[in-house]
Amino acid sequence: MTNPVCIVTGSGGLIGSESVKHFVSQGYDVIGLENDMRSYFFGPEASTQPTTDRLQDELEGFRSFDVDIRDRAAVERVIADNANRLELVIHTAAQPSHDWAAREPHTDFFVNAVGTLNLLQALRESKPEATFIFTSTNKVYGDRPNYLPLEDTGSRLELPEEHEYWGGIPTSMSIDHTMHSLFGASKVAADVLVQEYGRYFDMPTVCFRGGCLTGPAHAGAELHGFLSYLMRATVSGRKYTIFGYDGKQVRDNIHSVDVVRAFQRFHEAPRTAAVYNLGGGRRSNVSMLEAIEMCQQIAGKELDYELSDQARMGDHRWWISDLSEFQRDYPGYELTYGIEDVLHEIHDANAEQWSAEAAATS
Length: 362
Description:
The structure is a single chain. By secondary structure, the protein is of the alpha/beta class. Helix content is about 40%, strand content about 20%. The protein has 12 helices and 15 strands. The chain has helices spanning about 15-25, 35-40, 50-60, 70-80, 100, 105-125, 180-200, 225-235, 255-270, 290-300, 325-330, 340-360, and strands spanning about 5-10, 30-35, 60-65, 85-90, 130-135, 150, 155-160, 205-210, 210-215, 240-245, 250-255, 275-280, 285, 305-310, 320. A 7-stranded parallel β-sheet has the order 3-2-1-4-5-8-12, with helices on both faces. It is globular.
């Protein structure tokens, strides 16, 4: 009996690598599409190549192909060649930073929007019944969350408990008449394409609009992956800059394991053109100031940081995801990690390497 096939784009990244490990463990032959664009976006220290090499060494059921999702012919070839056994495509490859997108808008759009189109059309032509899971982003809502009636509670901005969004922001929040950043715009295009291929061609597709996705395998960079990079800066002695809002901006963070558990649940009972917000929710959220305090306690070191008055354009002052829509459709799904759990894992997995970095620069 032959194994089913799962294709994972961005398989060397945080969610991609977690997906690879999970679905290999579930008996899939997993094919990764990974060309290490992250090192181009954020520099050599953010390279995904070490993760790709490790996965290929450790997992018998995994193969990685050096494929750029902007290459339509290459994408079509991989999907067509594996169509007979293909059951699932997990699309995590992306340019993930709204700051970086402004530097090279064409690169950002072609990776995020056109790359997604290439995958969807190839799947439509070769295996339209395969499940398509897309890691979208809460940036599709633009800066609309910044107009919520937030209150300063000392270490964080927070909604009044009686507010309808106190438990988290739902997918009914409008995406119109807001500043998205160019990254947000390219992800909106991809998000809507995924929905449209679901509706128009009756394909099982889902957009998971993530808040901050995190975990010990995250190659955090200054422009993306704040918990990982924050812990790295604390351990290694790098100076850290907080952009805007006095460090009181709030993010929910979801561990990569919990993200992939949601992927598994969806694939077991896929829907057409589904959309969910997916993040840490009320279970796992933190302000910048609160995260710094936790990092310092865990690492036993003081972080050298400064506050900048210049907030990033379109950046959220507050984001907590409403998970109830997904939990309604997939009863029993709950998060297994909180913020402190995540930070301890990030520290323990990387402290030796980051401490060596500190010693080398001292």
